[in-house]
């Protein structure tokens, strides 16, 4: 039996759909915070709230394989993930798969520390594991694309930093491959898109797809933060966005590894396809 945590999220739903195309639906369990919202998944649904460890034992009962999709609450994730790892140990899980971040154990990426700590917990648990260090999703930039289409441009502070993104569906397909095939135990995969791009190139691609003039304005970090706050973002959120752009500028998201393409057996989805859908 395969249990997918956070199965009602955008990545989780794609993984469940991919699994249903590969294994019988009766072998899949969607572990979700709100079971009533997952009735349309077409598989067994169990309650699993990362913030309620008492729900996790029942959620993972009988599981052979578990996909631990990282939580979204920055600052709480290590404790949340540890609760899942402990429940997986008690359930006798034979293979734990975790969605991490690029080069989590060595990168200064702002999101890396919680992923690094989780990876360490998993390795120390003694459970057979696979670490999927997911790069950035094309869909992360949909708000930027939509803003550019609406206003004619966007701002940032990423300079000429490159992003090797791929579609969320590509990363979901990689997780499905790991969960339904053999030989992946105790391995770590650095997953990224086949191509990388800069914000200037993103603007040019949006312009090409839409036929509009689209500009990218590169700001200093403080200017960028001030612009975001002026646009009604909370200060903490603005600071986080600026930090991510700083990481992009530093080249932390631009590595093209080829490992995602190798796992899914086909080219990754270019950002231009995501732009075309938005247009």
TrEMBL record:
It comes from Amycolatopsis acididurans. The lineage of its organism: Bacteria, Bacillati, Actinomycetota, Actinomycetes, Pseudonocardiales. InterPro entries: NAD(P)-bd_dom (IPR016040), NAD(P)-bd_dom_sf (IPR036291), NmrA-type_oxidoreductase (IPR052718). This is SDR family oxidoreductase. SUPFAM superfamilies: NAD(P)-binding Rossmann-fold domains (SSF51735). Pfam families: NAD_binding_10 (PF13460). Residues 7-181 form the NAD(P)-binding domain.
């Amino acid at each position: 039996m395969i249990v997918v945590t956070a199965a009602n999220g955008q990545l989780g739903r794609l993984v469940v759909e991919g699994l249903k195309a590969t294994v019988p639906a009766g072998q899949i369990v969607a572990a979700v915070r709100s079971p009533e919202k997952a009735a349309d998944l077409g598989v067994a649904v169990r309650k699993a709230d990362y913030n309620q460890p008492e729900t996790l034992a029942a959620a993972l009962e009988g599981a052979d394989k578990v996909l631990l999709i990282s939580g979204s609450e920055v600052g709480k994730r290590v404790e949340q993930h540890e609760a899942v790892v402990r429940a997986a140990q008690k359930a006798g899980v034979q293979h734990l798969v975790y969605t991490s971040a690029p080069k989590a154990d060595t990168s200064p990426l702002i999101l890396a520390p919680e992923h690094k700590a989780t990876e360490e917990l998993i390795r120390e648990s003694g459970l057979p594991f696979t670490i999927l260090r997911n790069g950035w999703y094309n869909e992360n930039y949909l708000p930027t694309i939509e803003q550019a289409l609406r206003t004619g441009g966007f701002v940032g502070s990423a300079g000429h930093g490159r992003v090797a993104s791929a579609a969320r569906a590509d990363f979901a397909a990689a997780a499905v491959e790991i969960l339904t095939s053999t030989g992946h135990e105790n391995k770590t995969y650095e997953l990224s898109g086949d191509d990388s791009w800069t914000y200037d190139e993103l603007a040019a691609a949006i312009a090409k797809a839409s036929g509009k003039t689209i500009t990218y304005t590169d700001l200093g970090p403080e200017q960028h933060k001030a612009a975001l706050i002026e646009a009604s973002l909370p200060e903490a959120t603005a600071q986080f966005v600026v930090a991510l752009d700083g990481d992009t500028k530093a080249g932390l998201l631009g590595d093209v590894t080829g490992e995602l393409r190798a796992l899914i057996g086909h080219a990754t989805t270019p950002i231009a396809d995501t732009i075309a859908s938005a247009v």
